[in-house]
Amino acid sequence: MQIKDELIILLGVNGDLGKSLAQKLLAQNKKVIGIDIHTRPRIKLDRYFQCDLANFSLVKKVVAQIKCNNQQTPIIISCIGLFNAPTYENDCFVTRRFLQSVNVNLLGVTIFINQLLTKFLRLNLQSMRVIVVGSTAAHVGSLDLGYGVAKAGLNGLVRSLSKALAARGVVCIGVTPGIFTSRMSRSVARSRQARAIAATQIKRIGELEEVVNLLDYVALEAPAYLTGSIIPLNGGQYT
User: Which of 20, 35, 183, 189 has its CA 20 to 30 A from that of 45?
Assistant: First the structure.
């Protein structure tokens, strides 16, 4: 079903995925509020907030500045994806890398979304939507242990939020892409990229546009009955 009068709150708007999705939404005359750690957005948005999701007190301050009226349908989309080097280095567990991944990819995303939902629930809005971009790492693991743990946790967030808030009109859907064209994938060693591609049935890397098109559909048109679902987009790497 087509959602009307949307207010899009897009976390990770400066990443390749977030930027491309924002451009597609803006081209459809949607209002987009961007959130990211950088000082400025890469594209022109209706509004932009600089926010380090690992700084939970700052998250609270940013959430307090986001406004929504009773005629709008808030759609919160998280495209956050902080990908670190392998957590084990020379047989040593690098605690800093693990905590950074978990704090940003899981805890920061979870706290931001839930504080914003709490604020919007008090407005007695008829409907809201949450879209969380995860990763195949939730299923196949990652050499960045924090990333793998965080993405698995996000799947739990999607299912739990849906169970807790479906009766309040909140639809929560997860999308878990495999490897696709982006700055993040290009930063991965070629040998790791090759293994990920070989694990797919289609034997190629995913295109950024393919992920963007799915997110656009899930955010604006997918039926509410899809709530609690995790949609894989990985070329057959897993089902």
Answer: 183
Rounded average pLDDT over 147-161: 97
Q: In degrees, to the nearest 5, what angle opens at C-alpha 28 toward C-alphas 24 and 30?
A: 95
pLDDT in tens, 126-153: 899 999 999 999 999 999 999 999 999 9
Tell whether the model's pLDDT for residue 211 goes beyond 70: yes
- E-state strands within the chain: 6-11, 31-36, 47-50, 73-78, 88-89, 92-93, 128-133, 170-177, 230-233
Q: Which pTM does this prediction carry?
A: 0.94
Query: Which domains can be identified in the chain, with CATH numbers?
Result: 6-229 (3.40.50.720)
Count of alpha carbons within 13 Å of 55, Cβ hemisphere only? 11
- Could you give phi then psi for residue 107, rounded to 5 degrees? -65, -45
Give, in order, the Cα–Cα distances in Å from 87 to each of 17, 23, 106, 152, 182: 24, 34, 16, 16, 22
**CB 49 within 8 Å of CB 35:** yes
Cα separation of 197 and 178, whole Å? 9
- Strands 88-89 and 92-93 turn out to be antiparallel
Helix crossing, 95-102 with 145-165: angle to 10°? Answer: 20
Element (H, E) at 193: helix 190-198
